[in-house]
Amino acid sequence: MTSLFVIIVLGLLAIAIWQLTKMFDLTQVGDVDNSQIANDGDNNTQGYLMFGFLAFIYIFSIFGLFKWGPLVLHTPASKHGAEVDNLMNVTWILIFTVQAITQVLLHFFAFKYRGKKDQKALFFSDSTKLEVIWSGIPAVVLAILILFGLYAWTNIMFVDKNEDTIVIEVYAQQFKWTARYSGADNVLGKANVRLIEGVNTLGVDLSDPNAQDDIVVSELHIPKGKKIHFKFRSQDVLHSAYFPYFRAQMNCVPGMVTEFAFEPVYTSAEYRALPYMVEKVANINSIRAKKSIELVANGETALDPYTFDFLLLCNKICGASHYNMQMKVIVDTPEDYKKWLNDKPTLVQEVKTANAPKPLEGGTGVDSTKAKDSSAIAKMAMK
Ligand SMILES: [Cu+2]
């Protein structure tokens, strides 16, 4: 609201200044040049302003690089991550070099050929040589870049059928993630949205032999040094499973299964101990500590200190709570991973427990028949 108010005030102020200058112009009499056609003086001013703008672009770019550069994603936590970062860095270097050269040329020529009295521009209809140069160079550079990208993409996306992987399903719905482990057979049981019932929130076909050892969890644990083959499904709308630190992202599309595989190279604990991450977390916590002082002064509770965790985020705007659609991803050592998974009940067991006849609720001392009686008494009392 305040920002809207500031924008309105600034807008009105700009109109006021514009009107004042007009009034000032109208009050001028005598030898002042009131012509709307630019003279040599105007052209010189505009020419030098071009250099001013060029300086602004460069100073702002360099300032931005130093100020916000360190905030970009750092060390990749997956094996293929380095390849993605490499491709990104090459693209950035190319863009920066090309823009540095072309911006200087653009502004320099705008200055050099600024309007001068009695000077006429040269007209020529076309130049084949020039056109070949300015179409050929970008075409070659882009082709190389695209080929490099395609090569990296196939390299990352290719999962060998015989490769030893762990198959995990990631299920998206508004607005949460659920994971299903394929169990000892490493094959996920069939699933269908029509079979969703009670605790079977993913619609797993419980009659499928492959589904018997499937495990459904709400926190993703994966072991370091092992390729994880993710299969994605969505219950409702388009979502996108985004693992920023693993440099992986895949759309989750209703009605189809999409796939992606990556191998984590750091455990969560190892990644937390990386010097850059220690520094980043310390910085976040110093900001939180400052904010907490303010909160406590207002009688609110202080913020908890932050600890780093890998996250799975949704990267498609899928509805009102999209911003909060996330799941913790914990990379364990292979031993810890096994221990964690062994503790988990299979979905079949969970369904059995949920469907088992419940003993009468003793805690409240009221069973359902008594509750009915008391409501009947209450109704009678109303009459
Ligand atoms: Cu989503």
From TrEMBL:
<comment type="similarity">
    <text>Belongs to the cytochrome c oxidase subunit 2 family.</text>
</comment>
<keyword id="KW-0679">Respiratory chain</keyword>
<feature type="domain" description="Cytochrome oxidase subunit II transmembrane region profile">
    <location>
        <begin position="65"/>
        <end position="160"/>
    </location>
</feature>
<keyword id="KW-0249">Electron transport</keyword>
<dbReference type="InterPro" id="IPR036257">
    <property type="entry name" value="Cyt_c_oxidase_su2_TM_sf"/>
</dbReference>
<dbReference type="Pfam" id="PF02790">
    <property type="entry name" value="COX2_TM"/>
</dbReference>
<keyword id="KW-0813">Transport</keyword>
<keyword id="KW-0472">Membrane</keyword>
<dbReference type="GO" id="GO:0005507">
    <property type="term" value="F:copper ion binding"/>
</dbReference>
<dbReference type="GO" id="GO:0004129">
    <property type="term" value="F:cytochrome-c oxidase activity"/>
</dbReference>
<dbReference type="InterPro" id="IPR011759">
    <property type="entry name" value="Cyt_c_oxidase_su2_TM_dom"/>
</dbReference>
<dbReference type="InterPro" id="IPR045187">
    <property type="entry name" value="CcO_II"/>
</dbReference>
<protein>
    <recommendedName>
        <fullName>cytochrome-c oxidase</fullName>
        <ecNumber>7.1.1.9</ecNumber>
    </recommendedName>
</protein>
<dbReference type="GO" id="GO:0016020">
    <property type="term" value="C:membrane"/>
</dbReference>
<dbReference type="InterPro" id="IPR008972">
    <property type="entry name" value="Cupredoxin"/>
</dbReference>
<dbReference type="GO" id="GO:0042773">
    <property type="term" value="P:ATP synthesis coupled electron transport"/>
</dbReference>
<keyword id="KW-1278">Translocase</keyword>
<keyword id="KW-1133">Transmembrane helix</keyword>
<feature type="region of interest" description="Disordered">
    <location>
        <begin position="353"/>
        <end position="383"/>
    </location>
</feature>
<feature type="transmembrane region" description="Helical">
    <location>
        <begin position="87"/>
        <end position="112"/>
    </location>
</feature>
<feature type="domain" description="Cytochrome oxidase subunit II copper A binding">
    <location>
        <begin position="163"/>
        <end position="343"/>
    </location>
</feature>
<dbReference type="InterPro" id="IPR002429">
    <property type="entry name" value="CcO_II-like_C"/>
</dbReference>
<keyword id="KW-0812">Transmembrane</keyword>
<feature type="transmembrane region" description="Helical">
    <location>
        <begin position="47"/>
        <end position="66"/>
    </location>
</feature>
<feature type="transmembrane region" description="Helical">
    <location>
        <begin position="132"/>
        <end position="153"/>
    </location>
</feature>
